[in-house]
Specification:
By secondary structure, this protein is α/β, with parallel strands linked by helices. The chain is built from 20 helices and 14 strands. Among the domains are: 198 residues, Aspartate Aminotransferase, domain 1 (Alpha-Beta Complex), CATH 3.90.1150.10; 170 residues, Aspartate Aminotransferase, domain 2, CATH 3.40.640. The strands form 5 sheets. It has a 5-stranded mixed beta sheet. Bound molecules: ligand F0G. Ligand F0G binds next to α7 and α8.
Length: 536
C-alpha cells in the first residue's frame, strides 16, 4: 500500500474553523456599481465580489495561534510586550536560522519568573544585528516598526534624500533594482531620486508548462551585467544604495536566487555600496530556493532565510505579505554595517529615522501598530517559515497558473509565489490592440462585471505608460495580476476563475479599451482616477 506522500496529491496541512458566506450579486448589479464607482477597480466594494485577487497584502486568513496571541496584545504606549516579542522574532527569523531563541514562548506560556523575564527578555542588551536591544537600540536604533511597507519606504527614502541633497543640492541620484514595486518607485520619485529597473533578460523566456512543477529559472534575478554597467556609467557616488525585491512583484512575482543575491552583494562590495532588500515575501522566495536552487534542497527554510539576509545591509518590509499578518511594516538595518557607516557622518542615521518614525507614525515601540497586531505578527513570523505551509501556498499558485496555461491563456511561466500574471500584450495579440488602449484594464473590468472576480492591472495604466519617455517605457512590463490571498481560497475559487478567464480569452476581441476620464496626471493614479470603458 502507498504511503500518504506517495498518493500523488498533496497531504492536507490545515483546516478552516471560520467561514464567510458570500452575497448573491447579479451581473446587472455589478455593472451599476461599476458606473457608480467610475470603473475604478480599487473602488468596487469588496463585500459584493465573489473572488478578490486585487492583492495578497493584508488579506491573509490568520491562524488560530495568531488570533490567540492577539489576546496577549499589550496596548501600552511605551515598550508594550509585543515590541520585545517582535524584535526577538526578527532576530530569530532573519539571523538565527535553525537556532532560534524562541523567547516569545515565555510570553505565550505566561512565564512567572520575574528575574528570568528581566534578564532574558525585557532588559537584554543586544547589538550587531538587525535589531539592537536594550541600551543599544536607544543609542543606535536600527529597528523601526511602522504601519506598513510604504511607510518604511517613506522613512528610508525621505531621510536619505534629505542627506544626499543637503550635501549636493544639484545632484542626480539613482536607485537600481531588479524591479521596484509601485509604491517603492513612487516613494523614491517623490524624494527626487530616480528609480531604475534592471530586470533579468530571461523574464520573458519561453517556459514549457509541463516543467513548472520541476524547474525554476529564477526570473526575478537582477541583471548583474547591467548593474555593473549602470554603476560605471553613472558613478558609484550617484547611487545611494542597490535594492533587491524578493520576490520580484513588479517582475511577475518571480523569485530571486541566492546566487544572484551573492553576486549583487559582491558588486555592492566592489563599489562600497549598501545593499537593501524589499523583503516582502521573503519566505516564499526561500521556498523557491529550497525547491529549485542547486545545493539547497537539504537546507531548512530558516537556514536559507538566514543566508539570504546575511548578504544585505538592511531591508524594508511589508508584514502584510507572506501570510504574516493583516497589518504591519518595518525598516531594519545592520548595526554598524555599510549602510550605517555611509549615512551616519554627522548624526546616527538611526536617530534620524527614529525622529521621522515618531513624528509621523507613533513612538518607537509600536510605530503605528496596535499591540494586538504586533503579537499576531510576531507569531506569524515563526509560522511562515514552516515548510508545510509554504508548500501549500506556492502549490496553490502553481496549480492556478498551470490550469490557465492549459486553457491557452498566456501567463508568465513559471509562476511566482503569490500571484499569477497574464501577459497582457500577448493576451491581446492579433486583435489590433495598442498599448495605450489599456486593454488590461478592460479585462479587469469585464472580469468584475461578468463574474464578480477582481484582478489588478499592473502595466501600461498603473505604470503610466502615457506619461513616460520612450526610455522610461522600457521599464514597464504589461501585466494583469491575480494575487492570491493566503489561506483564504480553495480549489473551487481557482477553478471558477480559470473558467471565467478562459471564456474572456476566447472572446478577447470584445474586451473594451479604456479611457482615463478623470485624473490622468495624478500620481499613483490607478488608486484614484476615473475610467471609461469603450464598448463597441
Ligand atoms: N514592496 C512590495 C514588493 C510590495 O509588493 C508592496 C505592496 C510594498 C512594497 C508596499 O507595502 O502595501 O504594506 O505598504 N504590495 C501590495 C500588492 C499592495 O498588492 O502587491 P505596503
Amino acid at each position: 500500500m502507498k504511503q500518504s506522500h506517495e498518493l500523488g496529491v498533496p497531504v492536507p496541512s490545515k483546516k478552516a474553523y471560520v467561514v464567510r458566506n458570500l452575497k448573491n450579486v447579479s451581473g446587472k448589479q455589478r455593472e451599476y456599481i461599476q458606473k457608480k464607482t467610475e470603473y475604478n477597480v480599487f473602488s468596487f466594494p469588496a463585500g459584493l465580489l465573489t473572488v478578490d485577487y486585487l492583492s495578497d497584502s493584508g488579506t491573509t486568513s490568520m491562524t488560530d495561534r495568531q488570533w490567540a496571541a492577539m489576546m496577549l496584545g499589550d496596548e501600552s504606549y511605551g515598550r508594550n510586550t509585543g515590541y520585545f516579542c517582535l524584535l526577538e522574532a526578527v532576530r530569530d527569523i532573519f539571523e538565527r536560522g535553525d537556532m532560534p531563541s524562541k523567547k516569545i514562548d515565555m510570553i505565550l506560556t505566561g512565564e512567572k519568573d520575574t528575574e528570568k523575564l528581566m534578564d532574558e527578555f525585557f532588559l537584554e542588551h543586544i547589538e550587531g544585528g538587525f535589531a539592537n536591544g536594550g541600551r543599544f537600540q536607544l543609542i543606535r536604533p536600527n529597528a523601526f516598526i511602522l504601519p506598513q511597507g510604504r511607510c518604511a519606504e517613506h522613512v528610508l527614502f525621505g531621510t536619505i534624500s534629505r542627506l544626499l541633497f543637503a550635501e549636493n543640492p544639484k545632484g542626480k541620484f539613482f536607485i537600481p533594482s531588479n524591479g521596484h514595486f509601485d509604491t517603492t518607485e513612487a516613494n523614491i520619485h517623490a524624494n527626487r531620486i530616480q528609480p531604475v529597473n534592471l530586470f533579468s533578460e530571461s523574464m520573458f523566456d519561453e517556459f514549457p508548462v509541463e516543467d513548472i512543477y520541476k524547474k525554476n529559472p529564477f526570473k526575478g534575478d537582477m541583471d548583474v551585467e547591467k548593474l555593473k554597467r549602470f554603476i560605471e556609467e553613472k558613478g558609484a557616488d550617484k547611487i545611494p544604495m542597490i535594492y533587491l525585491t524578493i520576490t520580484n512583484n513588479t517582475g511577475a512575482g518571480q523569485p530571486v536566487s541566492l546566487k544572484n543575491m551573492k553576486a549583487v552583494r559582491d558588486i555592492a562590495d566592489e563599489y562600497d555600496l549598501p545593499l537593501f532588500y524589499d523583503a516582502c515575501r521573503f519566505a516564499e522566495n526561500a521556498m523557491f530556493i529550497k525547491e529549485f536552487e542547486d545545493g539547497y534542497s537539504n537546507k531548512s527554510i530558516p537556514e536559507i532565510v538566514k543566508e539570504m539576509f546575511s548578504y544585505c545591509d538592511g531591508f524594508t518590509i511589508s508584514f502584510k505579505k507572506d501570510g504574516l499578518a493583516n497589518m504591519g511594516g518595518g525598516l531594519f538595518f545592520k548595526d554598524k554595517g555599510t549602510f550605517h557607516k555611509k549615512f551616519s557622518s554627522n548624526e546616527d542615521i538611526g536617530v534620524l529615522f527614529k525622529e521621522m518614525q515618531i513624528l509621523c507614525y507613533g513612538n518607537d515601540s509600536y510605530g503605528g501598530m496596535s499591540g494586538r497586531d504586533i503579537m499576531a505578527l510576531a507569531v506569524g513570523l515563526y509560522e511562515v517559515v514552516e515548510e508545510n505551509y509554504l508548500k501549500d501556498r506556492i502549490g496553490q499558485v502553481r496549480d492556478f497558473a498551470y490550469k490557465l496555461a492549459k486553457k491557452g491563456v498566456p501567463v508568465i511561466l513559471p509562476p511566482g509565489g503569490h500571484a499569477v500574471y497574464i501577459d497582457t500584450t500577448e493576451f491581446f495579440e492579433g486583435t489590433g490592440a495598442k498599448i495605450g488602449d489599456f486593454k488590461g484594464v478592460g479585462l479587469t473590468l469585464e472580469l468584475i462585471r461578468l463574474y464578480g472576480i477582481r484582478a489588478c492591472e499592473l502595466g501600461a495604466f498603473a505604470f503610466e505608460w502615457d506619461k513616460k519617455t520612450p526610455e522610461e517605457r522600457k521599464g514597464i512590463l504589461n501585466f494583469v495580476r491575480f494575487a492570491v490571498p493566503r489561506n483564504a481560497y480553495g480549489p473551487e475559487h481557482i477553478d471558477y476563475t480559470v473558467a471565467a478567464v478562459a471564456e474572456l480569452y476566447k472572446n478577447r476581441e470584445k474586451i473594451p479599451s479604456v479611457e482615463i476620464s478623470r485624473g490622468q496626471q495624478l500620481r499613483l493614479r490607478h488608486f484614484q482616477s476615473g475610467l471609461k470603458p469603450k464598448y463597441l
